[in-house]
């Protein structure tokens, strides 16, 4: 059996508190009360209620300021706030919503109307929490399998959320120091993300890739950081992207291809660089051979993979690397 939802009522008028308290208690809610703004902030932080019914006009700190402070605090920002107000002028209702309210009810209060409005917003909040929990589980699973992830606001490159592994990798590759909320991705990466945004949100079959080389590579090491862009896990975030990254080694990947397709060491190395989009001349420079020799290796690779084109060979290689990476 689920625990009852917790409602915090904030009002400086005892009669209003009494009417709402009795109606909500009878409906099965756990009810907390506060009679002024400071007390409301304390109760909200301590109890983490599921919803807050907030009087707009109170002595001292009014409801608008209480709502602004609740929304500015990460601990209470997600709690839905329904304003209770006798003010019906448009400017006051707009002020209530601008301060962070999700809805308002007018005085004199009608308990049945308040309950109906509450149920709508409690349902919305439950769905949001469920989606957030699913997203957290998905991100944790990525970390557990050696992938790192972060959510980036494309407009300014701000990192809104990142796993510990993502932060370590970005620091190691010199792209983004700092903590989530204050750090930004590098300017080049941000511009690339902006160019890819429309395609990603339209659901490209293959997420765009970005490769970062270590700024000071260790001698003999070919490790690199590969980033993939995806739409965000939560809905309604059109200007944000989920970045999934993993550190890879070219030699390890080549060994995987060698074993998967029964290639020689040199053929596997050539196939790996073909899969990275390199042309024969570039591959020749990388592996220390001539373009003609690379072409011969590629002909043998095509025969062993049963394909006729470079594109098909690259697709098979990338598919195998994703399965075993």
Automatic annotation (TrEMBL):
Q: Which organism is it from?
A: Comamonas aquatica DA1877
UniProt GO BP = regulation of DNA-templated transcription
InterPro entries for this protein: CheY-like_superfamily, Sig_transdc_resp-reg_C-effctor, Sig_transdc_resp-reg_receiver, Tscrpt_reg_LuxR_C, WalR-like, WH-like_DNA-bd_sf
Write the protein's name.
LuxR family transcriptional regulator
Provide this UniProt record's keywords sorted from A to Z.
DNA-binding, Phosphoprotein, Transcription, Transcription regulation, Two-component regulatory system
According to the entry, every stretch annotated as the Response regulatory domain falls at 6-122
Residues carrying 4-aspartylphosphate? 55
What are its GO cellular component terms? cytosol; protein-DNA complex
One Pfam family name is GerE
